[in-house]
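Title: Prediction job returns without error message
Component: structure pipeline
Severity: low
Priority: P3
Assignee: unassigned

Description:
Job completed but the reporter wants confirmation the result is attached to the right record. Sequence as submitted:
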Amino acid sequence: MKVTVVIVSYNTAHLLPQCLDSVKSQKFSGKINVVIIDVGKDETEELIKKSYAWVDYISYPQNDGFGKANNLGMRKYYDQSDYFLILNPDTKLEQENLFKMVSFMETDKRVAILSCKLVLPNGKLDRGCKRGFPTPWKSMCRFLFLDRVFPKTKTFGGYNLTYLDENMTHEVDSVKGAYMLVRKSVINDVGMFDEDYWMYGEDLDWCYRMKQKNWKVVYHPGAKCIHYQGASSGLKKESKKITKASKKTQIKAIRAFHESMHIFYDKHYSNRYPWWVNRMVMFSVNIKMEIALLAAKIKKY
C-alpha cells in the first residue's frame, strides 16, 4: 500500500519538525512518500535540505492557495499512490495513525475520505473534523451560538454535528483539510481540489462533490492527531503563541474565509433557495466579515 503525505507550508518551518518526525515514526508496513509544497518565505527549504532529505521539497514562488498547492503535490505522486494524506504542518500524528486509518479504508471501499480524531493541544476535540454541510439553517444556528447552548440536539447542532458521540465512528458530510485521508480512485471520479478557493472551503467543496457521487465521508476516532489549529492564519486563540502570521496575513485570511462562503453557496446552494434567502445569506456573511475585520484591525498582537 502506498500513501503520499502532502503538506503545504506557509511560514511554518518552526512547526514542521514535530509533524515530519511523527510521519517518520509511523508504524506502517506500506510505502510512505512525503512532499512539502513551500509557499512561504521562511526557513522551510533550509530545514528540509539539512534535516529531512527524505522529504520531497517543492518551492512554489507565490501563494496561489491551499487547494492549488495540494493539487501540485498530488499530481507529482499520482501514479505512485493508493492514498493521499492531506496534512497540515501544525499537526502531530500518533504512532499508529496511518496503519489504523488505511486499515479502516481497506475494509470499506466506498469510503472516499476519512478523518481521524483531531485533538487540540488542550485535549479538546477540534470540532471541524466532523461537520455538516453549511445550509442557511445550520449556519444561522452556529452564528447565533445555538449549537453551543444546545449541543446535543440535531436541530441546532447540525453545523459541527455536536450531537454525534466524538468517540464513535460516523458517516458525516465533511471533514477538515488539516487531515484528510483520500482514496486515489475517488479523485479519478470527482477530480482534485477546486482552485477557485484560495483558503478555506476547498475541503468542504471536495467532500460535497464526493457525496454527490455517493461516496462516503467518514469520521473515525480510532486514531488521533494533535492539531495546533490556525498556525498559518493566526486566527485561532489555540495557536496564538506559535503563529508567525502578521496582521496583514490575518486580515487576508479573514477575507478568504468569508469569500469561501460566497463561492460554496453560489456553487452548491443558490439554485436551491429563493432569491430573498440568497440575499439574506450573502448579507449576513458580509456583515460577519466586516465585524471580524474590525476586530482584527483593533486587536493588539
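Comment from assignee: result matches the submitted record. Strands lie at 2-9, 31-38, 56-59, 83-87, 91-93, 111-119, 170-171, 179-183, 216-227.
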